[in-house]
Amino acid sequence: MLVIETFRGSERESVHRVLAAHCDTDGRLIHESEPGAGSWRFFLRSAAKPFQAAPAVAEGVIDTLGLTSQHLAVACSSHDGSERYTRLVREILESAGLDEAALQTGSDGQGTPIQHQCSGNHALGLAWAAVRGWPTASYCVAENPVQQGMNAAVAQAVGAEVMIAPDNCGMSTHQMTLSNAATAFARLASPEADTFLEGLGTVAAAMRRHPELIRPRGQIDAELMATDPQLVAKVGAEAALGIGHSDLGGIALRVLDGGTRAWGPAGSAVAAEWFSTDSTGLEQPALLDAHGRPIGHTAARWE
């Protein structure tokens, strides 16, 4: 069993339980954090973005519109709304003859729709629709080819049927087992990624090349990719995380209570245990008071 403990001073204050599974590209379970963890179902949330991006890549949208690996990386990101991300999102839209008004992300508290953490994901979906001549005004509607294509790509990467539900930003989210998700991330990181889902290898290369565009540095997925070039990683809301290794398969984890402060220690712990990954610097993040002074820490413990 994997737990993440928060200490105030030297006294334990809180405990987060983590479920995790490790699978190969064929879906064979290699490890699980405790018996039955691999069969636990969860929503992939934003960890689905690399798989959602693949069909647009496969159909040549990036090349047709003269976009770069940076634009593809931001299409897979959950960003902080700052200018370096919104500039790239705006360039995706402009390349397709669209502007910010086309985005239907709503607000996540970071500002305007283009500042929404999922705006890159939406922008690539819109660009795909524009290139194919599909309706852009309804790109978030379930019957739109954008949604159908993205959902089919996630299911193909997973290699299993997934349940579809609405995500907070208007896109779809996908429920599956941890083993299913671990298999998908094993395939994403594999040198043979395109044999599982066309376009997936190009997506993985962009993520590895630009980890700071997937998430700001200091976040677990960005730090894992910066630590080891064989890794590809992406977080999802409610404290989900997928990690793929080019040779060693894939990992999916979920902090059961959705506590995102456990992301860093949990991701670091499973990557070290099952991939022998070096330190990410997030193994024991400090607990700070209102003045920024350290008063405790958070750390992983295997039972």
Explain what you see.
By secondary structure, the chain is an alpha+beta fold. The chain has helices at residues 49-58, 61-64, 69-75, 83-95, 119-132, 145-158, 178-189, 193-196, 200-209, 211-214, 220-227, 263-275, and strands spanning 2-8, 11-23, 29-32, 41-43, 163-166, 172-177, 231-236, 240-245, 249-255, 286-288, 294-302. It has 12 helices and 11 strands. The strands form 2 sheets. Strands 1, 2, 3, 7, 8, 9, 10 and 11 form an 8-stranded antiparallel sheet that branches. A 3-stranded antiparallel sheet has the order 4-6-5. α3 (69-75) crosses α9. The mean pLDDT is 97.
Give the overall shape, derived from the CA principal axes.
Answer: globular
Name of the CATH architecture: 3-Layer(aba) Sandwich
What characterizes the major β-sheet? 8 strands, antiparallel
Low-confidence regions: none
Query: Using only CA atoms, what is the Rg?
Result: 18 Å
Instruction: Calculate the mean pLDDT score and round it.
Output: 97
Q: Strand-residue fraction?
A: 15-25%
Order of helices and strands: EEEEHHHHHHEEHHHHHEEEHEE
Number of strands: 11
Q: Report the CATH topology name.
A: Beta-lactamase
Reading off the top of the CATH hierarchy, the class is best stated as: Alpha Beta
* First-residue to last-residue Cα separation: 5 Å
Count of spatially separate domains: 1
